[in-house]
Write a structure and sequence with these properties.
This protein is mainly α. Helix content is 76%, strand content 2%. Strand 1 and strand 2 form a beta hairpin. The mean pLDDT is 75. It holds the Pfam family 60KD_IMP.
Length: 262
Amino acid sequence: MKKRIVFMIGLASLMMLLTGCTEVGEPITKESTGIWNSYIVYPLSWLIIKISELLGENYGLGIIVVTLLLRFVLLPLMIKQTKNSKAMQALQPEMQKLKEKYPSKDAATQQKLQQETMALFTKYNVNPLAGCFPLIVQMPILIGFYHAISRTRAIAEHSFLWFDLGSPDPIYVLPIVAGITTFIQQKITMVGMTSNPQMAAQMTMMLYIMPIMIMVFAFNFPAALALYWVVGNIFMIIQTWIIKGPDMKKVTAESAGGAKKK
C-alpha cells in the first residue's frame, strides 16, 4: 500500500509538471500552442462552452453534461477495472499459498515467487496494474478541467446556483458533498473485496484518506472542479452499484444470516 500511495503521489506530481501548471494565468484559445493546450485544455474548454450555449449559456449545466459524457467514455475502462479487482480478490487464496510455498526472503526464492505469481496472473488473465489505469487516464482530464475553467473567462466568471464557477464554494457545500460521495463510492467498491485481512486494512485506510484529500482540494479549488467531482462520484456510485449488485446482495444476505444466528 505504501508503494501504491508513493506511486500515486509521484504520478500526480509528474502530471502537474507535464501539464504546464505555470500557464494557469494565461487565457486558453484556439491559438494556444503546445500539446497540452491543443489536445487537452482547449478541447475541454471548447466542449464546455458549446454544450453550455446549447443549454442557454448555463455553464454549470454544461460542466455537468460534459462530466457525464466523460464518465460514459471512461465507462468500459472502469468496468474492466472493477472486474479485474474482483478477479484479484478471487486469487488471494492462491497467492497466499505461493507465499507460504516460498517463505524465504533470499533473492532466488523471491524471484521464483514473482515468476509463479505472474504465471498465476497470466493463467487467469488478471492485470495487477489495471487499478492504476483509470488514475492515469483521469489525472490529465482532472487537471485539464482545472485549466479549462480557470483559463476560460466565460466559464470562470459564470455563476451557477449559489457559487461562481471560477472561485471556491463560499459556503463549502460542494467540498463536503464531494468528500461524502467519495466515501460512499469507496465504501461500495469495498463490498465483497475485504476477505483478505491485509487488503481489508489497506482499503479501510484509503476509505478515509481519499475523502479527506478530495475535501481539502475542493476547499481551495474552483467550485466548478468540485462540481465535476460530485457529479463524477454520483455517476460512479450508481455504476458500481449496478456492476457489484450480486456481490452486495450476497454480503447483505450473509450479514442477515449472521444476525439471525446470534
